[in-house]
Design brief:
8 helices; transmembrane; transmembrane helix; four-stranded mixed β-sheet; DUF2726; 246 residues; membrane; single chain; Trna Endonuclease, Chain: A, domain 1; DUF2726 domain-containing protein; alpha+beta
Length: 246
């Protein structure tokens, strides 16, 4: 018998204490290993579900991204004035360089075909369209057209949209569809000028087709003096009867 065993037999309290300590250490190790296995299993299952694997993977609803709400706009005029007074403003171009070139070409072509028509830039649809449906009007109120042809009565006739090289991004196609449908229902034409495709000659032909030319005005000529008017012969002819005397 070893000396350590003899000591444990001689002191049973020490033996029980060592036994309990061993049990406690064993339980602690088992608990830690169980947590590690559970954590590993959860990570593996999470990757499995995110890949859409398994029969239930396709039913998993994606987590909605957190949306940062914009700060609420003050509705009171005094609050709005206070906010504006505390902010810095700077000017920015109404059109970029490409849109500006299209505007100048349109103005030149419209002037050639009908000087009474005009070209407007960045016009809000809420200013040229009306609708009794408040919800429908709210959908188009803040949308704009790049260029607008108006006639001599200041009525909008045709919208010209300039599609630059980076236009079709995000929801641009959906926004264009909304504008096109609203304009169509109001009887306003919708036409596109595509960067790198529409040539100046094609743009001129488009304007020639859209703009209504003014009717030619017939100016009356100068009235000749009475001395130059042809004189009627008042002498009765030989075969005519003389008026009877009373």
């Amino acid at each position: 018998m070893s000396p350590n065993t003899a000591v444990l037999i001689a002191d049973p309290v020490l033996a029980i204490g060592l036994l309990l300590m061993g049990v406690f250490i064993g339980l602690t190790i088992a608990r830690v290993r169980s947590r590690i296995r559970r954590h590993t299993w959860r990570r593996r299952e999470a990757r499995h579900w995110n890949r859409g694997a398994g029969s239930l993977g396709s039913l998993r609803q994606p987590t909605a991204p957190r949306v940062e709400l914009p700060p609420s706009r003050p509705t009171d005029s005094a609050d709005q004035l206070r906010v504006v007074m505390s902010a810095d403003f700077a000017i920015q171009p109404l059109l970029n360089k490409s849109e500006g070139r299209v505007l100048k070409e349109l103005e030149r072509f419209v002037e050639d075909f009908n000087p009474r028509w005009q070209v407007m830039a960045q016009v809000s649809l809420g200013e040229i369209l009306s609708c009794k449906d408040a919800s429908a009007y709210a959908c188009i109120n803040s949308k704009r057209v790049d260029l607008l042809l108006i006639d001599d009565q200041f009525l909008p006739r045709h919208a010209i949209e300039y599609q630059g090289f980076g236009h079709y991004q995000g929801s641009a196609a959906a926004r264009d569809a909304i504008k096109k449908e609203a304009l169509r229902r109001a009887g306003i034409g919708y036409h596109e000028v595509v960067a790198g495709q529409t040539t100046p000659s094609e743009l001129r032909r488009l304007v020639e087709r859209l703009v209504i030319r003014p009717l030619p005005q017939i100016m009356p000529g100068p009235v000749p003096p009475a001395s130059q008017l042809p004189q009627l012969d008042q002498t009765p002819s030989a075969g005519s009867r003389a008026p009877e005397a009373d």
